[in-house]
Design goal:
By secondary structure, the protein is an all-alpha fold. Helices cover about 85% and strands about 0% of the residues.
Length: about 450
């Protein structure tokens, strides 16, 4: 039971903040090394190389986002089993998750490498950056197994209430990544392939640290029996994993379409969009972390039947998300040119990014709260509503960019983002309200029935 944490009892606010803070720093460190990749490539190799790397971001989100959706979906059943105190099912769920993750890693690696060049052409990637984009992409997708291994190990640890170990793993891997980035680009002059190789090396290290911790948890020591074929278990895992994976991929498709239109405008626009995407990913980090926190908290408490605690936990996480919006949204709104200048070198790219950031800064609360309500609904075992919200996100992104880019130009990309966030937030908020009331009222009815039976 070393370094596991039961989230089904105790003060809700204290438990959430204890779980949230290491996870926040974990995600922050991940963004720092992603940001460092971008800044080092931009300053060391120029805006064209930055555009090449940034051009891969939406496709990377499509492939890696799919795998993350699967592993996070698997972790819901793991957390519910842990919350219910069912050690046998817990071990079988972990064993089945590992087997499915290995199959996913092989499949996604083969598909992404095979079709990368074709997809780059379909995305209207400018010829001037095509070679560097392909070079970066082949290395990143060639190392998918390491990325998926880390995501699976970290998801299992979070499901067991351990947000500390992934934090330690990311600290170490971030330091390694930044050092290797600098050595490869500034000392060895390797170009974008050095940044890609550094990222994969960092993922190998973080996966190794998390795996090492998992091996020390006696409750989940796996035997050959745990790996025996169990069709029902696979179906339960896929029931949660596939909708979450599809949601991420569907959302990524909308981003790829936006990237298609941005690429058609020119390299300066691609560079600006890449920089803006990095800032959005970084500034929505507290909301993302609150979402991961409420996912683990909800899954354990749902398994234990503690539905009122889920409602209390959502309130705490929503407060965290909105508080971060007030701070970080203000930075995006009031200091866009300063932010753009940190990453970008060209005046045109900086000016374009300065148009984008204030619009998203005003509406950042929508994506922050979206993560909280969406992850809670998923944690309760209702993954199809979030998947439908992903479809809505894709529809809104594509519709807005097609309609408004001829009129608003680059600002249409920001409008597409905030429209997608708002539509998805509304969908998941309604789903949360319906499902939490159903669960609480259902438990109250069962309790009343049991009391009446006892009286008779």
């Amino acid at each position: 039971m070393t370094h596991t944490r039961n989230l089904t009892s105790g003060n809700v606010k204290k438990i959430i903040f204890t779980f949230f803070m290491p996870l926040l720093f974990t995600n922050l460190m991940q963004q720092i090394y992603s940001f460092a990749d971008t800044a080092i490539v931009g300053k060391g190799l120029g805006d064209a190389s930055l555009a090449a790397v940034g051009n891969m971001s939406s496709l990377t989100f499509l492939i890696i986002g799919f795998s993350m959706g699967m592993t996070n979906g698997f972790s819901i059943l793991i957390a519910q089993s842990y919350g219910a105190g069912d050690a046998k099912q817990l071990r079988k769920a972990i064993a089945a998750s590992v087997k499915l993750s290995a199959v996913i890693a092989l499949f996604l690696t083969a598909v992404s490498i095979s079709f990368l060049h074709t997809i780059m052409k379909v995305m209207q990637t400018p010829e001037s950056i095509l070679h560097e984009s392909l070079t970066y992409g082949y290395i990143i997708f060639g190392g998918l197994a390491a990325t998926i291994a880390y995501n699976m190990c970290a998801a299992i640890l979070r499901a067991l209430g351990d947000s500390r170990t992934p934090f330690i793993a990311i600290i170490v891997s971030t330091i390694v990544n930044i050092v290797l980035d600098c050595v490869c680009i500034f000392v060895l002059g390797t170009g974008v392939e050095g940044a890609a190789a550094a990222t994969i090396a960092a993922q190998v290290i973080s996966a190794s640290i998390c795996f090492s911790r998992l091996r020390k948890i006696e409750m989940i020591h796996l035997s050959r029996e745990d790996f025996a074929y169990d069709g029902r278990m696979y179906m339960q895992l896929l029931k949660n994993g596939l909708p979450m994976a599809c949601m991420n991929s569907i959302t990524a498709v909308g981003c790829i379409v936006v990237q298609y239109f941005v690429n058609g405008l020119g390299v300066a626009y691609t560079s600006a969009y890449s920089a803006c995407s990095k800032y959005i990913n970084m500034f929505m980090l507290p909301g993302v972390t609150a979402g991961y926190t409420i996912s683990s908290f909800t899954s354990q408490n749902y398994g234990a039947g503690e539905y009122q605690r889920i409602h209390e936990g959502v309130k705490v996480c929503a407060e965290i998300a909105f508080g971060s919006y007030l701070i970080l949204g203000s930075v995006m709104f009031f200091f866009p040119s300063v932010l753009a200048g940190i990453i970008l070198s060209g005046d045109d790219s900086i000016a374009l990014a300065s148009e984008f950031l204030p619009i998203c800064g005003v509406m950042l609360f929508a994506v922050d709260l979206l993560f909280v309500f969406r992850q809670c609904v998923q944690g309760m075992g209702y993954p199809f509503v979030p998947m439908c919200s992903g479809i809505l996100e894709m529809f809104l992104r594509i519709s807005v960019i097609i309609i408004f880019i001829p009129v608003l130009g680059f600002r249409a990309t920001a409008l597409a983002e905030v429209s997608a966030w708002s539509g998805a937030l509304l969908t998941n908020f309604i789903a949360y309200q319906v499902n939490i009331r159903r669960s609480v009222n259902g438990k109250a009815a069962d309790t009343e029935k049991n009391v009446c039976s006892a009286c008779r």
